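Quick one: co-fold with nicotinamide-adenine-dinucleotide.
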Amino acid sequence: MATKTVPEITLKNGATIPQIGFGTLSVPPDRNASPENTAKTAEVVGVALELGYRHIDTAQMYGNERGVGQGIAASGIRREQLYVTSKLGNGQHRPDSVRRSFDETLQKLGLDYLDLFLIHWPLPTLYEGDYVSTWKAMTGLLADGRVRNVGVSNFQPAHLRRIIAETGVTPVVNQIEVHPCFNNDAARSASASHGIAVEAWSPLGQGKLLDDAVIGDLAASKGKASAQIILRWHIQHGHIVFPKSMHPERMRENLDLFDFELSPVEVASIDALDKGEAGRIGPNPDTFDWIPSGATPTPTVKS
Ligand code: NAD
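Sure, here it is.
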């Protein structure tokens, strides 16, 4: 099975994480946790596990943790063979909310522990700019063993510097937007300088890069799909990736990256597609302040 060939990345605390996972943003297409959507998510996650994925990336804000949990339960795969990540919702940054919503995440997933829990966005313009208290509450969750690793997502260099300086605890991963049109060099190199592994979200640029001529030529010359060329570029850069697709053939293709290599010149030709800030697809973490409806930040709770 393809899963045997997925490398493990060693994090700075010595723990390991499979370099390829399955992304579940928009599985199913909206964030509504209706019974129909939950059943569909369970079905898609079941297919991913059947195809050999052992690492699943979800988030409180995706509205699909229950479906992810049902897919895992139905698979019969032993818990210790799986790697499950979730992320703190933007409305849950107060320390009490971190703890309460983490409990809800475990309950929805039907799991005793998470492998990785991330602050989804730093939200520097909300919560009086206090993402440090949020990070302290995240690290506090490690004590009872119900989460094995904690990290961050969308943290810019200054956000990383501040939480490390003020708490002395370095996240093990930073999950950030990275794809050939947006190398995100500043956040990648800041992460590397602290020994933080980079997880590249939207690794395929949400599918928008698949028609690029450079990628297409490389795909043709190697007899591979464009998606495989892009994902191989990520693998050779050491990024952890979790492409998302609901089509079994594409899901299979996205896991099948280990019978070819890109030469240094080929890697450089993809590096050169970077458009800097103009290539960013998602929101800018310095200004992003979206809170899902019904999850307004509550007044500060001292703890
Ligand atoms: P992606 O780059 O994985 O692209 C997904 C799209 O690419 C799919 O909708 C599909 O249309 C297409 N696609 C996938 N495989 C293909 C193939 N083999 N051939 C042709 N087309 C293919 O985009 P994404 O879903 O935004 O990102 C992946 C994961 O990253 C998400 O599911 C989620 O888990 C995570 N993510 C995290 C954040 C964050 O803020 N931390 C933000 C966005 C995404």
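If it helps, Residues 23-25, 57, 120, 153-154, 175, 201-207, 210, 225, 227, 242-245, 250, 253-254, 282 surround nicotinamide-adenine-dinucleotide (CB under 6 Å).
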